[in-house]
Amino acid sequence: MCGIIYHPKYLEYDLGDQHPFSPVRIEMVMDLLHEFGIEPEVETPEVVTPQQLEVIHEPEYIEVVEKAGRGETDTRFEKYGLGTADNPVKKGMAEAARYICGGTLLGARLLLENKYKKVLQMGGGFHHAQRNLASGFCLYNDLALAIKHMTENGWHVAYLDIDVHHGDGVQNIFYEDDKVMTLSLHESGEYLFPGTGWIYESGKGMGKSLKLNLPFEPFTEGESYIGILDELLESALGYYRPDALIVQAGADAHFSDPLADLLLTTQDYERIFKAVIQKADAYANGRVLFTFGGGYSFEATARIWSLLFFILVNSNIEEKLPETWLKKWEERLGVKIKETFHDPNPSYKQIPRKSEIENHNKDMLRRLLDIVMPDWF
Ligand SMILES: [Zn+2]
After folding, report:
1. CB atoms inside a 10 Å sphere around CB 49
2. CA-angle at 236, arms to 230 and 242, nearest 5°
3. The pairing of beta strand 118-121 with beta strand 42-43
4. Cα separations (Å) of 5 from 9, 109, 123?
5. Which of 2, 23, 212, 341 is the right S-S partner for 11, CB 3.0 to 4.6 Å?
C-alpha cells in the first residue's frame, strides 16, 4: 500500500502566471487521475507553524518570509533572496509553502509510524531553500524538515535527488551530519543553476564522504543516466543501509524541459522509478517517500508524475490519455499534448558525441567513488 499526501492549499503556492514553478503541474496530475476514474484516498496534512520551521531555518529568515507572504514590505527582502525573478513576493506564498512542508513532514511521520512503506507527496521538493535564503523558486525546505524529523527519531536517512538541478539546500543543511546521506544527480553546474554539485563537495566533519554528487554532461541520455544511477545506489545504499529513503523526483531531466539539457524520456523515468523502489526494498527496509520538484515542460511533467503514481500504487498504465483531459489542458496551456502516456518514438537518439558523453559520465562516477569510498570501509 502506498500513502498519498495532498492538500488543495498546495495550489496556492503560485509565484505568478509567467513563473515556471506553476501549481498547474499538480493540478494536471490530480485532474488526470480524476479523468481515469481514480479518486485516491489522500492523507491530509496540517499546516506547519513558523516556529516548527526553526529546526531548519533561522528565525529572522522565517519572520521576513512570513511578512512577504502577508503582503507587507521589509528592507531585508533582498538579503534573504526575496523579490527576485526566481523568488518574487506573492501574497499567500508563505502559508502555502507551510502546507506543503506539512505534507512532506506527514510523509516522514507515516513512515515512522509504519503506516505505509511507500508514500507519495503530491507536491513539494523545495531542495534549493537554504537555512537563511530563498533560492530557485523555493522558500522553505520541506525535504530537510522531513529528514530532520526522521533523524530526531533515531533514523539514518538517505536523500536522493533526481531533479536536473543540484540539490544544494538539502546538502548544505546536512553537510556535517552523519545521520544523513545525500545523493544528487544533476546536469553539471558548469551549465546550470545553481552552479554547484561537484564531486568534491562530499561532506565535512561527521558528514565527510556522505554527500555525493554526480554532475552529468549536457545531452546525457537515459542509458548512461540509468547505468550510473544503478551503480551509485548499489554502492552508496549498500554501504549506508538507511532506515528510509527520501526522493526528490523533479521531472526536469526530461528531454523537452525548457530549462535544462538532459535527455530522459518517460520510458527512462519509468525505469528510474522502478529501480529506486527496488533499491529501497533492498537497502532501506522498503521505506521510500517521494516528493515532486522541478519540471517545466508542463505536459511532460504531468505524465511523469502520474507515471510515478501508477507505479507506486501498482496499477496498470493505460497508454491512451483521456480525451477530455487532453482537450481541457491543450486549451488552458495553449500547447499540443502527447496523446499517450509515454513519449512516442523519441527522436533525439542520433545525438552527436554520444560515446564521449557516456565516457565522461562514467569517469565522473569513478572519480566520485574514489573520493568517498576510502572513508566507508
Ligand atoms: Zn530542477
Report:
1. 11
2. 115
3. unpaired
4. 12, 12, 8
5. 23
Which residues make up the environment of ion ligand 1, defined by Cβ < 5 Å? 163, 165, 250, 252, 294
Residues in the chain: 377
d(CA 115, ligand 1 centre) in Å: 30
pTM over 0.85: yes
Q: What is the DSSP string of 180-211?
A: EEEEEEEE-TTTSTT----TT----GGGTT-E
CA atoms within 13 A on the CB side of 51: 0
Output b/e per residue, 162-197; b: 16+ Cβ within 10 A: bbbbbbbbbbbbbbebbbbbbbbbbbbbeebbbebb
Distance 295 CA to ligand 1 centre (A): 6
Whether cis (ω within 30° of 0) applies to the bond prior to 344 is no
Look up the CATH number of the domain holding residue 205.
3.40.800.20
Work out the widest C-alpha separation in the chain, in whole angstroms.
57
What are the mean pLDDT values of the chain's consecutive 10-residue runs (377 residues total)?
Answer: 97 95 97 95 98 98 98 97 96 98 98 98 98 98 98 98 98 98 98 98 98 98 97 98 98 97 96 98 98 97 97 92 97 93 77 92 98 96
What confidence score (pLDDT) does residue 347 get? 62
Domain count, the chain: 1
Q: Measured between alpha carbons, how far is residue 276 from residues 62, 233, 282, 283 in Å?
A: 34, 8, 10, 10
Residue located via cell numbers 529513503: 245
Provide the CA 123 distance to its chain's centre, in angstroms: 9
**What domain range includes position 28?**
2-375
* CA 37 to ligand 1 centroid distance, Å: 30
Residue at grid coordinates 523533479: 250
Q: Let me know if 350 is exposed, middle or buried by CB neighbors in 10 A (0-12, 13-18, 19+).
A: exposed
Catalytic residues: 128
Report pLDDT for 348: 59
Question: Rounded to an integer, what distance in angstroms lies between the CA atom of residue 358 and that of residue 360?
Answer: 5
CA 165 to centroid of ligand 1, rounded, Å: 4
